[in-house]
């Protein structure tokens, strides 16, 4: 079985979307920029996993970033709402 199929069969794509959604939910509630370490601890993933998702989100314009000392700090960019799942509103 190709690696990609194994990844999909284990729920890798849905897990990735779920992690990203959890990061956005956490940042939405935050009153100030959050570190990768704080985000990872809150959503229960490794620091590396959180950092990879945050850097992808930075590249896509969802979050903003600033390095303070040795810390990476992230916060939601203006207009982030378009990345949240919409309910069935009429």
Summarize the structure.
With 90 residues, the protein is α+β, with helices and mostly antiparallel strands. 52% of the residues lie in helices and 16% in strands.
Walk me through what this model shows.
The chain is α+β, with helices and mostly antiparallel strands and 90 residues long. It has a single domain, classed as Orthogonal Bundle (Arc Repressor Mutant, subunit A), CATH 1.10.10. 52% of the residues lie in helices and 16% in strands. It is built from four helices and three strands, in the order ααβααββ. It has helices at residues 3-9, 12-29, 36-43, 47-60, and strands spanning 34-35, 63-68, 71-76. It has a three-stranded antiparallel β-sheet. The chain is globular. Mean pLDDT is 82; it is low at 1-9.
Give structural attributes.
alpha+beta; disordered N terminus; 90 residues; three-stranded antiparallel sheet; 3 strands; Arc Repressor Mutant, subunit A; globular
CATH topology: the name is: Arc Repressor Mutant, subunit A
**Strand line-up across the major sheet:** 1-3-2
**CATH class descriptor name:** Mainly Alpha
Q: Could you spell the SSE succession in H and E letters?
A: HHEHHEE
**Quaternary organisation of the protein chains:** single chain
What class would the helix/strand composition place it in? Answer: alpha+beta
% residues in beta strands? 15-25%
Radius of gyration: 14 Å
pLDDT average, as an integer? Answer: 82
